[in-house]
């Protein structure tokens, strides 16, 4: 079964063609980073308009690269949520219309399920069950995964997600947009011993996350030292160390509580080098293993949507002709496959 995947939940337009027999045939991505950089963050209306411009040319590019025409598409998958409502509607409208015109089934995919399953696209995928850490601009969550659609939420963001905290810290340090990579680059020049920031919610039981207080602590430290040349890099280092340590502590707790030794990490923050190294070291010491998608699939992409959609279409899940999207959509509401 060949499934065309469409990702348009935020500021990246991703298209991909996945074949249940041959694997990923082709994928293409357009990032809107340059367009939103002047605003210091994503402008929803601009994002929606750009998706309108990009989806069909990217689809044609993917089909040409795969050597498949539109008649060779057996199903369409599109991101139905969570995300920016206008951006979601663009992808869903195109996907549902394309499926209607080709007389093939369509399925709406949960954006975070796409991220969660992205490591299964690799040559050596993890086996079920495992613990998943999903860290992005909008989410920081720990999930026990027994199978596709069989998810138990272990911990979630109570306020700012890790990626959002990175972006806001970059903005207050005047590092530009997107913030995560900018903070990570600057942190490499920072002194790890100068500042020590709090590790939020690690001094109490539980697996929930909260990064808003850490953001405020960073702001106060910056205001007290902004006249010092080296302070910006030292603060970036202290902030990143605090986020990474917090994620490591929560992952260790989740593995202890579930008794599992496999950890999957997905989402944009999963590309952070310090986080990857820390998790790899921790899992190696425990005799377990951590799995990451390839770097290009850490951020939003069409491949993860095509893959997740293919699994659900093969299981017989299809959408009605109505175009429905959800800006908020609890992962636990998904049906099991």
UniProtKB/TrEMBL annotation:
Q: Which CDD domains match?
A: ASKHA_NBD_TsaD_bac
Give the UniProt entry's GO cellular component terms: cytoplasm
Listed HAMAP family: TsaD
Query: Binding residues for substrate, per the UniProt record?
Result: 134-138, 167, 180, 272
Q: Where in the cell is it found?
A: Cytoplasm
Q: Which family does it belong to?
A: Belongs to the KAE1 / TsaD family.
The Gene Ontology biological process annotation of the record reads: proteolysis; tRNA threonylcarbamoyladenosine modification
- Which cofactors are required for activity? Fe(2+)
Annotated keywords: Acyltransferase, Cytoplasm, Hydrolase, Iron, Metal-binding, Protease, Transferase, tRNA processing
Q: Does the keyword Cell membrane apply?
A: no
UniProt EC number:
2.3.1.234
User: What catalytic activity is recorded?
Assistant: L-threonylcarbamoyladenylate + adenosine(37) in tRNA = N(6)-L-threonylcarbamoyladenosine(37) in tRNA + AMP + H(+)
Keyword Chloroplast in annotation: no
Co-factor binding comment: Binds 1 Fe(2+) ion per subunit.
Give GO terms: molecular function aspect only.
iron ion binding; peptidase activity; tRNA N(6)-L-threonylcarbamoyladenine synthase activity
Biological source species:
Thiohalobacter thiocyanaticus
Q: Where does Fe cation bind?
A: 111, 115, 300
Query: What sort of enzyme, by top EC class, is this?
Result: transferase
Query: What is this protein called in UniProt?
Result: tRNA N6-adenosine threonylcarbamoyltransferase
Task: Identify the InterPro entries for this entry.
Answer: ATPase_NBD (IPR043129), Gcp-like_dom (IPR000905), KAE1/TsaD (IPR017861), Peptidase_M22_CS (IPR017860), TsaD (IPR022450)
The record's Gene3D superfamilies line, in alphabetical order, gives: 3.30.420.40
Looking at the record's lineage, which domain of life comes first? Answer: Bacteria
In what residue span(s) does the Gcp-like domain sit?
24-307
